[in-house]
Amino acid sequence: MLISVDTYSDNLGISLIDGHKLVVKQVYHKLKPFSELLMEKIDMIFNQLGYPPSILYAVSVNKGPGSYTGLRVGITVAKTISYSLNIPIYVFSSLEAMAYKYRAHEGNITVAINAGKGECYVADFKSDISDITQTSEIRLMKINEFKKEIPGNLVVVKNLDIHGNNIIQDIDDLSTEGAFFALKHHQKEDPIKLEPVYIRPL
Question: Which of the two ends of the chain, N or C, has the fewest CB atoms closer than 10 A to its terminal CB?
Answer without folding.
Answer: C
